[in-house]
Every structure is written in structure tokens, then in C-alpha cells.
Amino acid sequence: MRLLLDTHVLIWWDADEPIKKEASQAIRTADQVYVSAASGWEIAIKASLGRLTTERRVADAVVESGFEELPVRLTHAEAVGELPWHHKDPFDRLLVAQAVAEKLTLVTRDRVFGKYGVKTLRA
């Protein structure tokens, strides 16, 4: 199984906050777990606005968790324009586009993602 973590799932995982048992097990046993560069961007913006406090750099959390960084490619960015407007959050729309393009299961608590037809795993 190949997974893409939604930003909040990465934050919870790194803070050792509870997520659903099925999602936790899937993350631990997945062939690959990706974290999008868009999540790093989102966290940086929220931290700079004072809406989020971080204990360490996202890059460090990703490496130490054994996850892989998923860069934002032009094909991902262009695919965002093809998505219906179920969601207005630009970070979430990019994560959906990446999950679709890379055939990844998106680990999230956001129920709106299901409207895009992307495979999700509830966290």
C-alpha cells in the first residue's frame, strides 16, 4: 500500500496524538508513506501566522518517521485545475491532485476528499 498523509495526519502522527487504529496500522505497514511538500508549505504558513506551533521542522519529522517527501510537480499543479470545486482549500486540492496522479491512498479525516473519487483511509 502507498499512502499520502494529509497535513493534519502528519501533525498528529508526529505529536503522537491518536488516530484511528486502521490508519495507524496502515501507516506502520505501508510500502511507502509520502508527505507532500505542500504540507510543509501549509505548516510553515500557519506557523508564521501564529495558528500553529511546531516542535521541529517538517523535513526532520518526515525523515525521522521513515516517510518520503513528495515534491509538487507541474503535472500535480495542473491537475488541480481539472478538479471539481468540492473544496476551496488550495493545499487540500493539491493533495487530492497528487494522490490521484500518483495513485496513492490519502490518509485524512476530511470527508470532502471522498467526493473527488480519490481513495481515502479515515484517520
Walk me through the structure.
By secondary structure, this protein is α/β, with parallel strands linked by helices. It has one domain (2-122): Rossmann fold, CATH 3.40.50. The protein is built from 6 helices and 5 strands. The radius of gyration is 13 Å and the shape is globular.
| Spatial ordering of strands, largest sheet | 3-2-1-4-5
The CATH topology corresponds to Rossmann fold
What's the CATH architecture name? 3-Layer(aba) Sandwich
Question: In CATH, what is the class?
Answer: Alpha Beta
Classified in CATH, the superfamily is 5'-nuclease
CA radius of gyration is: 13 Å
Mean pLDDT over the residues? 96
The fraction of residues in strands falls at 15-25%
What is the terminal separation in angstroms? 16 Å
How many domains make up the 3D coordinates?
1
Strand-pairing-aware structural class:
alpha/beta
Main attributes?
5-stranded parallel beta sheet, 123 residues, Rossmann fold, 5 strands, alpha/beta
SSE arrangement:
Elements: E1 2-5, H1 7-14, H2 21-29, E2 32-36, H3 37-48, H4 58-65, E3 68-70, H5 74-80, H6 90-102, E4 105-108, E5 120-122
Parallel strand pairs: 1-2, 1-4, 2-3, 4-5
